Amino acid sequence: MNKLTIDDIQLKDKRCLVRVDFNVPMESGRVVDDNRIVESLPTIKKLLDSGGRVILMSHLGRPKGKRNPEYSLQPVATHLTKLLGEPVKFAPDCIGEEVKKMVNTLAGDECLLLENLRFHQEEERNDQHFSQELALLGDLYVNDAFGTAHRAHASTEGVTHFLQPAVAGYLMKKELEYLSRAVINPVRPYVAILGGAKISGKIEIIQNLMNKVDALLIGGGMMFTFFKAQGLDIGGSLLEADKVDLGAKILKDAQKRNIKLLLPVDCVVADKFENSANRKTVPVMQIPKGWMGLDIGQESVRLFREELHKARTVVWNGPMGVFEMDNFASGTIAIAKMLADLTKNGTITIVGGGDSAAALAKIGLEKSVSHISTGGGASLEFLEGKILPGVAALTDRQN
Ligand code: AMP
């Protein structure tokens, strides 16, 4: 990686201003899923163990630039205190005199969490003055929030104009290393598997991956737009009518360039969008009128398995069906299990996107793949080949 990391700089007694991603699900003022907090612990511990004075900043939810107790990070400070086994102080704001005082009285190896950055609309606007105010709180900047690195906000990009060095934390480093392997120099065969609801959110990644992979497997709701493009009758299945031409173009392009793009051959159809609906598996050419496809079928799972079993690198983004409903989760679960098996056999498996990660967690396999990206949108943009502003802003390593 050509960016500096926390291993490259002096940390002792330094005020380390750290952008973390503590945008965690909360219920009644309690953290209900602390995965993102846990993921940032190695960085926080490293900074504390090195005698750094740690100032953490994050956003939580969408308070739209206004102070709103519902989105306070105070419960996260309480939770982090438990995880670290050491008190984490909490600042009532993220800029201003009181915060500066709290920061300046922080001892080496002490930790302070600032209040939600998005209580200020200047954060998302990447306001220069707000960025400067944040920069005053640190002697150096650490970004460990890969999940927001695709946004040029004050705390992810603006601040680096006023505070250097700007270095990557361990989570950021891990994300970049894994995703770069897939983007820059994948061990081949390299297979990508895409699902989820819509083509529109994934079109750029499809086009980018087509140039890189040895095979591209497509499932989920987006497959029906491709079927429509092939002239099939898709019943009441999900359709993006304005993307049919694009689907046809992608299929034609793949054929012309001899790219292996595989679509399912069968699907599980339902007569209603409900878990308890009547259901049956049919070939994709025979979707009955009034029925909708909600999962891929066993034949498709077999077809995808053949490709996946050859792979040495796999990227997976998006469920194969409506996995939130148990009766339509089989295809997604089968893929999740396949990835776990492949990982055991040495294949690099990278999962991006919250839904695919949730599917793995549903069957307890979240630790059984090489890497689950903490940033759905950020990982997609990275795989699309885009430069993430929060990464570009970090200090380059001098060779
Ligand atoms: P995305 O955010 O685009 O990755 O889409 C994820 C969503 O796609 C999940 O909530 C799934 O329930 C949904 N999905 C997957 N397959 C289908 C399908 N065949 N029909 C409708 N929704 C689907």
Brief summary of the model shown:
By secondary structure, the protein is of the alpha/beta class.
Tell me the domain tally: 2
The percentage of residues in β strands lies in 15-25%
Instruction: Determine the CATH superfamily of the largest domain.
Output: Phosphoglycerate kinase, N-terminal domain
Distance between the termini: 11 Å
Main sheet: strands, sense, barrel: 6 strands, parallel
CATH topology of the largest domain: Rossmann fold
Shape: elongated
Share in helix: 25-40%
Mean pLDDT: 95
Number of helices: 14
Structure description:
The protein is an alpha/beta fold and 399 residues long. It has two domains: 6-173, Phosphoglycerate kinase, N-terminal domain (Rossmann fold); 186-383, Rossmann fold (3-Layer(aba) Sandwich). The chain has helices at residues 35-49, 74-84, 97-104, 121-125, 128-135, 170-183, 203-210, 223-229, 244-256, 298-310, 330-344, 354-362, 376-383, 389-392; strands at residues 15-19, 26-27, 30-31, 53-57, 88-90, 111-113, 140-143, 166-168, 190-194, 215-218, 260-262, 266-270, 279-283, 292-296, 313-317, 348-352, 371-372. Helix 8 (223-229) crosses helix 9. The longest helix is centred in the first third of the chain and has 15 residues, at 35-49. The chain is elongated. Adenosine monophosphate (AMP) binds at residues 195-198, 201, 220-221, 238, 293-294, 318-319, 321-322, 324, 353, 355.
